[in-house]
Amino acid sequence: MPRLFLLAPLLALLPAAALAQDATDPTAASAQGDVAVTIYNNNLALVQDVRQLAIPAGISRIEFPDVSAQIRPETLSFAADGASIVEQNFDFDLLSPGKLMEKAIGRTVTIVRTNPATGAEQREQAKVLSVQGGVVLQIGQRIEILRDDGLPVRVIFDKVPANLRARPTLSVTVDSARAGTRAASLRYLTPGLGWAADYVALFDAKAGRIDVQGWVTLTNTSGTSYDNARTLLVAGSVGQSQGGYRPQRAAALRRAGTEAAPREQLGDFYLYPIAARTRIADRQTKQVSFLDVQGVPARAGYAYRNGWLASSEEPQSVRSVVHFSTARAGGLGDALPAGTVRFYMKDAGGAPQFIGENQVDHTPMGSDLALATGDAFDVKVKPVVEQRERVSNSKWRSHMRYDLSNAKDQPVTIELTQSGLDFAFDDTRIVSESLPSQRIDSNSARWQVTVPANGTTSLTAIFETRY
């Protein structure tokens, strides 16, 4: 767009009558009433707004400015005593220099040019012909293109187009049996409001404990602020008929809990109310604490997962893992909404340092979690396919060796998982192994391998498959 759009104080040049309605005046106080906002994890919110309105008898049109700019009009519910809804319209074209000029196509505006040397103004009437790639005007008998040359130029409009609003506005035509002031309730769904949990975990490996703070991170990109709103957060992704977001499942949950958390529930969802009314400003991120637990038992561990017939020429770093529980006894004592857990440890000087982060899905109370924080520096695994032999027309044996090393001055236990066992038609058997394994499922077997301080250990296993 030409620079005149950036320079022109467009609204200041409009006549006062054009700013008479709150829906068109961006500086007017919010027209919202008693607002309650219920926010879900999957970019969806329910807004309930009760306003006191003077409604005349018969059919009339009522405007509701300051609704969400992303309102889903088909979800609107309107209720007022003695009144029924006839029609609704949502004006979502918001006032901007570009939109104002676009709506002026085919209309006449006033172009004001200022001579930079003398300060004298020259005014001309111009018809807007196009705004594609620039503004094309017809001034008298000539066609002119407004140039982006930095010269003092502005455009004066006589009014704001009826369907162009400074604030998102819903208009409702109602049929009222009587006249009078009464409560009018709006209820609608909107995207642009969402929340997630963020956790800060201070891990003390030597003491075997962890301190966890949980924060609700609320984000508003709906195009509207919500003033003095009662706010309720719902932990869960409600179903939507189209485009519903399904969170990615994290692989951190080792055992699902069976304890009910001490929180209010709505159906199968947990509720996290914000205690005091708050302002949810547009284009703002807000954080509110909901969990603060100290001294929860936790332990450090290591994990490595090897693919089927995966062999490496160089030792590979294992994953550093923190194990803890959400149980009432010996755990966090709460259900965890989906979010990001960021881990810290204190250095020799006592200052907390960041060591990694991971995701958790919605996790019931009583669950066991194992969250990887990063790759270990001193603990390695080298998987080797030693031999593949054919023992019959439909049977093969694969000899695997896993060389584990530990450069730490204390022993470590590595959770070694061999995956891909269902690659060979679900009938893979371990016919020999140097340590007993646990078959996790048809696809994987797991060993707990202890490696001595500053030492090495080898694990061997023979797998028998049909092919």
What's a concise summary of this model?
The protein is mainly β and 467 residues long. Helix content is 2%, strand content 55%. The protein folds into 2 domains: 1-36 and 43-191, no CATH class; 193-467, no CATH class.
List keywords for this structure.
467 residues, mainly beta, 2 domains, 2 helices, 2% helix, disordered N terminus
Written overview of the protein:
This protein has two domains: 1-36 and 43-191, no CATH class; 193-467, no CATH class. A hairpin with a 4-residue loop joins strand 13 (193-204) and strand 14 (209-220). The model is unreliable at 1-24 and 243-251 (pLDDT under 50). The N and C termini lie far apart (66 Å). The protein contains two helices and 30 strands. Strands 13, 14, 16, 20, 21, 22, 23, 24, 25, 26, 27, 28, 29 and 30 form a 14-stranded mixed sheet that branches. Strands 1, 2, 4, 12, 15, 17, 18 and 19 form an eight-stranded mixed sheet that branches. A five-stranded antiparallel sheet has the order 9-8-7-6-10. It is mainly β.
What order do the helices and strands come in, and which of them pair?
Layout: H1 4-7, E1 34-40, E2 44-55, E3 58-65, E4 77-80, E5 83-91, H2 97-103, E6 108-114, E7 121-130, E8 136-139, E9 142-145, E10 153-156, E11 169-176, E12 180-190, E13 193-204, E14 209-220, E15 226-235, E16 253-255, E17 265-266, E18 269-273, E19 278-280, E20 284-306, E21 316-325, E22 339-346, E23 352-360, E24 368-392, E25 395-406, E26 412-418, E27 429-433, E28 438-441, E29 444-451, E30 455-465
